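Tokens as discussed.
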């Protein structure tokens, strides 16, 4: 085995040559080393695979005829060790069949020895560039999987652990999943975790909110359309199902979907086929469906507002996500997580919270669940002037829990809170209304009612 360890060569990249003809192997190694690459040599496939397990190789040049391996078959073995590596097959007598098989196994190229010597160096450079790109993509994919896996789901309560356990079991399959729960309980977060820890994790994850479109628009978004299907359809358009092909499509608020569209979705679930708007041909798709709703779909189906057959197809595996009121021990840890996240975003020093603030958070009836808690913590971080987060930074409805019997006290808290937010936004009414979570006209009414100078 022969290699050079200079820093320049390490920067260029690493190449492994596998060839049992030692003179050819050494000559090729010398040529490649002169280009600034670190080169390893092996005379058998077995020896080459051993080196690959010990060294960070980017490109392999492998002879097709080896004592112990067919070099074309070896490509698949190399890819199993590290899918980032690019392989160039070298052969004395090239055949079209071998070339096709090598490329199918994942080879970067397949060239004939002798005639193509002048092509090897440019080809190595291209293969190195491709391998480096592969490595960056692979690292990015790992980060995405880590970001959206089950460890990203916040909370340690028994209720959330039960939901996570069920989701982990179904993630490994291609089974359709129905996520149930109140608004803001993290249904999309669960859908992402199921996808990114499942067999389709390196394929697309496409999310669509069914309540965000009318029936006609949702159909064209989901299924796509052919040019001329309707006014304005100048050219063919891919639907979200096609975009999600081989991956997962997440249908949020599926209870809002029209009955007519539900029938078309049922066809996708039954045989993975659909028809684009304005088309006469059937399109095929391979997609996993995860749906979510805050409605009781069985009750909706019995009332004729949802197809019962679709409900049964969707609910093969249902998971109920608990609201924050059923996992109050998770509220403070989740709040602290978002406190840290938003503190880093606005570049403020670390905060701590006082007991009253924590007490109001845990006793509050979180109708918007985690989404509402996240929004509240973002607002608190923006408004905080000191390192200690106190209860006066919370919206007035939190104080209403304990001051409902004293309307004057509640009004005082509300007035102070509005003044604080106005000061932060430098009098910007639109931004103040957004942070307070109220309409602009409501804000103006309260400014007048409380005689707030603005």
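Sequence:
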């Amino acid at each position: 085995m022969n290699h050079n360890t200079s820093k320049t060569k390490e920067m260029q990249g690493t190449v492994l040559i596998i060839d049992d003809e030692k003179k050819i192997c050494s000559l090729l190694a010398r040529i490649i080393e002169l280009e600034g690459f670190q080169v390893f040599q092996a005379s058998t496939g077995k020896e080459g695979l051993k080196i690959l397990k010990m060294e960070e190789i980017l490109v392999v040049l492998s002879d097709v005829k080896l004592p112990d391996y067919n070099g074309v078959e070896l490509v698949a073995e190399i890819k199993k060790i590290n899918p980032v590596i690019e392989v160039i097959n070298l052969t004395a007598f090239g055949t079209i069949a071998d070339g096709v098989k090598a490329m199918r196994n994942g080879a970067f190229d397949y060239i004939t020895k002798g005639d193509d010597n002048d092509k090897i160096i440019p080809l190595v450079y291209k293969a190195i560039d491709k391998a480096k790109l592969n490595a960056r993509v692979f690292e990015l994919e790992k980060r995405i999987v880590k970001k959206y896996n089950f460890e990203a789901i916040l909370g340690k309560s028994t209720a959330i652990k039960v939901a996570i356990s069920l989701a982990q079991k179904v993630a490994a399959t291609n089974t359709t999943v129905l996520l149930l729960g109140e608004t803001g309980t993290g249904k999309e977060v669960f859908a992402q975790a199921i996808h990114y820890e499942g067999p389709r994790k390196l394929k697309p994850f496409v999310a669509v909110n069914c309540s965000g479109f009318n029936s006609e628009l949702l159909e064209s978004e989901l299924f796509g359309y052919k040019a001329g299907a309707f006014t304005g359809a100048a050219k063919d358009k891919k639907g979200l199902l096609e975009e999600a092909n081989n991956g997962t499509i997440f249908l949020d608020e599926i209870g809002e979907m029209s009955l007519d569209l539900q029938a078309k979705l049922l066809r996708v679930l039954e045989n993975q086929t659909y028809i684009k708007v304005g088309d006469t041909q059937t399109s095929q798709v391979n997609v996993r469906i995860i749906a979510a709703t805050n409605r009781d779909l069985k009750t909706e189906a019995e009332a004729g507002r949802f197809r019962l057959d679709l409900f049964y197809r969707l609910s093969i595996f249902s998971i109920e996500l608990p609201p924050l009121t059923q996992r109050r021990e998770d509220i403070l840890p989740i709040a602290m997580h978002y406190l840290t996240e938003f503190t880093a975003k606005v570049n403020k020093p670390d905060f701590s919270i006082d007991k009253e603030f924590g007490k109001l958070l845990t006793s509050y009836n979180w109708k918007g669940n985690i989404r509402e808690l996240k929004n509240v913590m973002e607002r608190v971080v923006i408004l905080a002037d000191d390192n200690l987060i106190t209860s006066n930074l919370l919206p007035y409805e939190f104080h209403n829990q304990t001051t409902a019997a004293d309307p004057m006290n509640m009004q005082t808290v509300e007035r102070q809170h509005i003044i604080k937010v106005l000061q932060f936004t430098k009098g910007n009414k639109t931004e103040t209304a957004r942070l307070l979570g109220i309409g602009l006209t409501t804000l103006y009414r309260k400014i007048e009612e409380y005689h707030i100078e603005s």
